[in-house]
Amino acid sequence: xxxxxxxxxxxxxxxxxxxxxxxxxxxxxxxxxxxxxxxxxxxxxxxxxxxxxxxxxxxxxxxxxxxxxxxxxxxxxxxxxxxxxxxxxxxxxxxxxxxxxxxxxxxxxxxxxxxxxxxxxxxxxxxxxxxxxxxxxxxxxxxxxxxxxxxxxxxxxxxxxxxxxxxxxxxxxxxxxxxxxxxxxxxxxxxxxxxxxxxxxxxxxxxxxxxxxxxxxxxxxxxxxxxxxxxxxxxxxxxxxxxxxxxxxx
Length: 250
Known about the structure:
single chain; about 250 residues; alpha/beta; Rossmann fold; seven-stranded parallel beta sheet; 9 helices
């Protein structure tokens, strides 16, 4: 199975959700690899590593693949690493380097898929962020690889609109969506957050919620707890995103 992990925005917790999914799939006996096609921003802590905007506390220079490798203990590769925490096209221009094209990313995915049961591809920012200099997006990469896509969303105000927009964009492209994951579920959720969680589940299957600050757990505790954060694991979908989203609004 090839699974793209995208988010409704940057900083929603994609990295820790990716690590947690990798742990849960490995616990089910699957051979798992992770690919971060474009890592933009390694000079400081960007918050997305934890899903709670607090920074990973692991020191400068770490990318998302490093965090996944540490937390999940699985193979985690990068396509290209850029120092500036910007959109890939802008970060590559500042660094004076060429971004790999989507065909190169697809080939990387295929190489990993040849040796693993599951390949998790963590996107950069949101679904329509451009990954190359030709306008190719995370959504396009999902379509080209035949991947299903898990959408990581926030718990708070604005999440219903952002999630519905992301699902609609995937539906229009015919990309299958096994479900949603809340990237940082607070220890003491507000009434708004509890209501949002129920309404998110009406948009698409809610696969689970990762506790806020999960990325700061000791590795052994993270790996022990991660499978329990999901009510179900994504499966390779044979139907389009419409079957999950159905065009329903929030």
